[in-house]
Amino acid sequence: MEKYVDLHNHSNRSDGELSVEELIEKAIENNIGVFAITDHNECLSQEEFERLQKKYEGQIRLDHGIELSILY
């Protein structure tokens, strides 16, 4: 079965509506194979990232992500 990649997702920690785990579970339901949370100016702690990797191991590959706001 073909899997998809989605590397731009926002949780309720920035301007999204779902929690990080709700987003991951939706991604699994939608056949996403590689997934990143890219909240504005915030990323998951290493501890939380590793916990989620372990929890969803074999179901989805999680990658670190962040969307930075830069003014210059």
Entry keywords:
single chain; 72 residues; alpha/beta; three-stranded parallel β-sheet
Architecture overview:
- This protein has helices spanning 20-29, 46-55, and strands spanning 4-6, 32-36, 61-63.
- It is α/β, with parallel strands linked by helices.
- The protein is globular, with a radius of gyration of 12 Å.
- The chain starts with a strand and ends in a 9-residue tail after the last strand.
- The model has no long low-confidence stretch (mean pLDDT 95).
Topology:
Blueprint: E1 4-6, H1 20-29, E2 32-36, H2 46-55, E3 61-63
Parallel strand pairs: 1-2, 2-3
Summarize the structure.
The chain has 72 residues and is an alpha/beta fold. The chain has two helices and three strands; from the N terminus they run βαβαβ. The chain is 28% helix and 15% strand.
Radius of gyration over C-alpha positions, nearest whole angstrom: 12 Å
Q: Class by helix and strand content?
A: alpha/beta
N- to C-terminal distance: 45 Å
Order of neighbouring strands in the sheet with most strands: 1-2-3
How confident overall, as mean pLDDT? 95
Helix percent reads: 25-40%
Shape from CA axes? globular
Strand content: 15-25%
Q: Secondary-structure element order, as H and E?
A: EHEHE
What does the oligomeric state look like here?
single chain
Work out the number of β strands. 3
Detail the poorly predicted runs. Answer: none
User: The biggest beta sheet, please?
Assistant: 3 strands, parallel
Q: Given the structure, what is the number of helices?
A: 2
